[in-house]
Amino acid sequence: MTQNTRETLSALMDDELSEFELRQLLKSDLDQDNLDYWRSMNTLRQTLSSGSSAFSQIDLSQAIHDQIEQLDTPAQFSEPAAIANEATGSATKKAPWWALGSGAVAAGILGVAFLLPQMQQPSLDGAAPMTLISEVNTDSAPATVAANAEIAVENAEESLDFYLATHGQSGTLPQPSIQSFARLASFEEE
Amino acid sequence: MTTKKPSDQQLVERVKKGDKRAFDLLVIKYQQRLLILANRFVKNEATAQDIVQEAFIKAYKALPKFRGDSQFYTWIYRITANTAKNHLSSQSRKANTTDILPEDAEFMDVAQDLRTVDSPEAMATAEILEERVHDAIANLPKDLKTALWLREFDGLSYEEIAEVMNCPIGTVRSRIFRAREALETVIKNYQENG
């Protein structure tokens, strides 16, 4: 296994390693022996290309490795940390769907409350405008609400009787082709 | 045929993805050359080591911003040179060196420059290693020696060496590896005992 790792390191020296092989190499047991081998191979290349130097015997890698281990790992360097940060970010940056839905409902209610009064214009004949939703006293007791309902029904019946009495007369006109609108609206049998 | 990116580029990509081992390999690969460079500026081995160490830490921190427009070595070379210059400025000393352009990083014979600042003892020791390595290469079996020579001195790829030697690429890879294995003993003895 160590021989394979060393041969892979040798190929890495020569830019002859595929990405897959490099991943496998880094996943493998890159122990101190393998790192020493890598160092020796680089010293060999240095010696063959430029001659050796007094620094061939110096190795800073362990000291640098220790310092890096002490660093706060940048987010870009740590896939799990990056994923964790992304997860936290999504919770803080994005509102949940139900919050968006409730916001839309609240905006709708506010819109109705503000727009309806503006849409209501006073009637030209000076009659009082219709009762607005916003003017309904929702705090009324049930009995009061029922009484108001009875009054409303009585008013409606009176209005209908008046309407029928007024327009029903046109049904007596001689033109048979014209039928009273009021008679069509009534339930009286002819 | 599998597409192969340059090793440095692959290693940098692995470091960016959080693999610190890949950075270890880059440090080991370039530390000697950068020590030579830093020593050229400060003319002190211990200070040169501090500078190179600092340069690598700076490079590690800045690596997410490294876009790969230049080669990693050119980039770390520039960082090391600037760190050395800053050191000299902070020491209020004038850098007694010719200007070194980062563009020249890949072509500069740093070992040759080092000889001008190495002590006679260090130069003698370095020459001993060279002699041992060349002796060891001379004693290699012919097929191993040829493969290593074509790779190290002529810069041929494995594919090209395979054509020259009329053998499979896998055999080339194996021969070069075996040649290096044979030379490793020489290097290791030198690193441990001088």
Protein described:
The complex is a heterodimer of chains A (190) and B (194). Chain A has helices at 2-13, 19-27, 32-50, 61-70, 79-93, 97-119, 142-167, 181-185. Chain A has 190 residues and is an all-alpha fold. In chain A, helix 1 packs parallel to helix 3. The longest helix of chain A is centred in the C-terminal third of the chain and has 26 residues, at 142-167. The radius of gyration of chain A is 45 Å and the shape is rod-shaped. The N and C termini of chain A lie far apart (109 Å). By secondary structure, chain B is mainly α. Chain B has helices spanning 7-16, 20-42, 45-62, 72-90, 110-114, 120-138, 142-152, 158-165, 169-193. The relative contact order of chain B is 0.08. Classes of the chains: A mainly alpha (190), B mainly alpha (194). At the A-B interface, helix 1, helix 2, helix 3 and helix 4 of A face helix 1, helix 2, helix 3, helix 5 and helix 6 of B.
Summarize the structure in short.
The complex is a heterodimer of chains A (190) and B (194). Chain A is mostly helical.
Q: Termini distance of chain B? A: 43 Å
Helix-strand category of chain A: mainly alpha
Shape of chain A: rod-shaped
| Strand runs of chain A, count | 0
Low-confidence stretches of chain A: 78-96, 121-141, 170-180, 186-190
Number of helices of chain B: 9
- What amount of the residues of chain B lies in strands? under 5%
Order of helices and strands of chain A: HHHHHHHH
Largest sheet of chain A: none
- The chain-level mean pLDDT of chain B equals 86
Fraction of residues of chain B in helices?
over 70%
Helix content of chain A: 55-70%
Brief descriptors of the model:
heterodimer, A: 190 residues, 8 helices, 63% helix, 0% strand, rod-shaped, disordered C terminus, B: 194 residues, mainly alpha, 71% helix
